[in-house]
Design goal:
It is found in: Cell membrane. Belongs to the binding-protein-dependent transport system permease family. CysTW subfamily. One of its GO terms (molecular function) is phosphate transmembrane transporter activity. InterPro entries: MetI-like, MetI-like_sf, Phosphate_PstA. This protein has 295 residues and is an all-alpha fold. The protein folds into two domains: 47 residues; 235 residues, MetI-like fold (Orthogonal Bundle). The chain has eleven helices and no strands. α4 packs across α6, α5 crosses α6 and α10 packs antiparallel against α11. The longest helix is centred in the first third of the chain and has 49 residues.
């Protein structure tokens, strides 16, 4: 009798779990469908508004107070100059820090605190990094709103992401590879350079490129830093004033309340920025597939 009652309880419990699973699956599917639908509507609106405005004059022209003659070449060059600072600073410091933390630093309480803080820095709002960049680079070092100050500020923003992703890539390398290398007489640095880094390269590059994609699309730190969207000459060096595509989108969106054409210019600029992001993300996928090895 007791066995029969226990069996009935188990069956009822299983039915409740199955019903709960189906209900939650439906909720998650509905949430996903809603998000994809909103994204599709937004993407359709941007494409329909922006495509007619994309032409050679728009891509190569200067900024103008006349919406019909406005171009984004200055913002494109500013974005490229910004990345010219962010890429080497972020990759060199990020990968170097990950190698030290993962392969050289001794494990202990101090190391645990450092690792926790690095992970927590990934979740700090981007505007906080803008305040830090304004305080250190713009004011303390007296750089002002130039390419170098903006690049260093954005490097601080994405550096924790590169460090964490690089450490995960290094951890994923099988330990027997490094043990075999050391067993054959290689030094620790030779093992890292010739065995561990090549094996971790796909993960490191993928994480770095995705972090750089975030840097291209950020606006808040540059707003705090005082990056303008004015009629500036094209930037030609690290100490020139500049603007970037997200800043141009931001200001044209604000101006759209006064002049309707700016809304269409902002949509066209969003398309250009999305193309750059797709290229970066596609590059990450190609690199991962090209250098992926199975051990």
């Amino acid at each position: 009798m007791a066995t029969h009652m226990t069996s009935e309880r188990i069956q009822k419990r299983m039915k409740r779990r199955v019903a709960l699973n189906k209900g939650l699956s439906g909720v998650f599917l509905l949430a996903t469908t809603f998000g994809v639908f909103v994204l599709g509507v937004l993407f359709y609106q941007i494409i329909t508004e922006g495509i007619p405005y994309i032409n050679l004059d728009f891509l190569t022209g200067k900024l103008s107070t006349n919406a019909e003659r406005a171009g984004i070449m200055g913002a494109i060059l500013g974005t490229l100059w910004l990345m010219a600072v962010v890429i080497p600073v972020t990759i060199i410091l990020g990968v170097g820090t990950a190698i030290y933390n993962e392969l050289y630093a001794k494990q202990g309480k101090l190391q645990t605190i450092i690792q926790t803080n690095i992970a927590n820095l990934s979740g700090v709002p981007s505007i906080v990094y803008g305040i830090l960049g304004m305080t250190i680079f713009a004011n303390l070092l007296n750089l002002g709103s130039v390419v170098l100050a903006g690049g260093l500020t954005m490097s601080l923003l994405v550096l924790p992401i590169v460090i964490v992703s690089s450490q995960e890539a290094l951890r994923a390398v099988p330990s027997y590879l490094s043990e075999a290398s050391i067993g054959l007489g290689a030094t620790k640095w030779q093992t890292i350079k010739n065995i561990i880094l090549p094996a971790a390269l796909p993960g490191i590059l993928t994480g770095s490129i995705l972090a750089l994609s975030r840097a291209i699309g950020e606006t808040a730190p540059l707003v705090v830093l005082g990056i303008p969207a004015l009629l500036l000459p094209f930037p030609g060096g690290l100490f020139d004033r500049f603007t970037v595509l997200p800043m141009q989108i931001y200001y044209w969106t604000l101006d759209a309340s006064l002049v309707e054409e700016y809304q269409f210019l902002a949509s066209a600029t969003i398309i250009v920025l999305l193309v750059m992001l797709f290229i970066l993300n596609g590059t990450a996928i190609v690199i991962r597939n090209k250098f992926q090895r199975r051990y």
